[in-house]
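Our preliminary data section would be incomplete without showing what the modeling component actually yields. Below, a chain of 202 amino acids is followed by its predicted structure, encoded as C-alpha cells that our downstream tools consume directly.
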Amino acid sequence: MSEIAEIRGQMARATEFRGYGAAALAGTAGLAVAAAAGQALWAPQPMATPWAYVGWWSAAAALAAGLIGAEAVARAKRLHGGLADEMIRAAMEQFLPAAITGMLLTWVLVRYAPASAGLLPGLWQVIFSLGVFATCRILPRPVLAVGAWYLATGLACIAAAGRDLAPWMMGAPFAVGQAMAAAIIWKTRERDDERSERDGTI
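Predicted structure:
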C-alpha cells in the first residue's frame, strides 16, 4: 500500500494540474482592486500602523486563497478523478514554502524593523513570484509570464519603497497579475476542459 501511495504521489507531481480555474483567478483580480480601495478606510496611515496594513492585506490574501482553493478542489474532483487528492496536495506543497516564507518575513520585518515596512508590497510580490515559478511545472508554460510580472512589479515596488505604502502598490500589480493568470488559464486549457467534458472524453 505504501508503494502504491508513493506511485500515486509521483504521478500527481508529474501530471499537469487542471484544478486552477479562470473564474476564481479573475475574482481575485477584482478582490485586489476592492482591497486597495478599502485600505484607506482600514489603514489610512499604514506606515504609522503597519500591523493594520498587514492585517488588511492578509485578510484579502486569505479570501483570495479561499476562492481559488474552493474552485481548485471542485475542478480537481471533476477532472482528475481518483488522483484529485494527490494532485491538490502536490499543488499545495509547491506553493507552501513561499507562503510560509512570506508570513515569517512579514512578522520579522514589522516586529523588528517597522521603519522598513515600506518594503512589504515589493517583498510580497517577489515571494509570490517564487511561488508561481515553483508551480509552473504543473501549469501551462505561459504562466511563467505571470511569475515574471510579479517579480518585475515587486522589484519596482522595492525601488519605490518611499511611497508610503500607497494602495496601488498592492492593488494594481495583483489585479493585473491575477487577470493575466485567468486569461492564460482560460485560453490555454479551460476551454479544452469544458469541450472535453461535453464530448465525454474526461
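The chain has seven helices and no strands. Helices lie at 2-14, 22-42, 50-79, 84-112, 120-135, 144-159, 168-199. Preliminary results of this kind motivate Aim 1 of the renewal.
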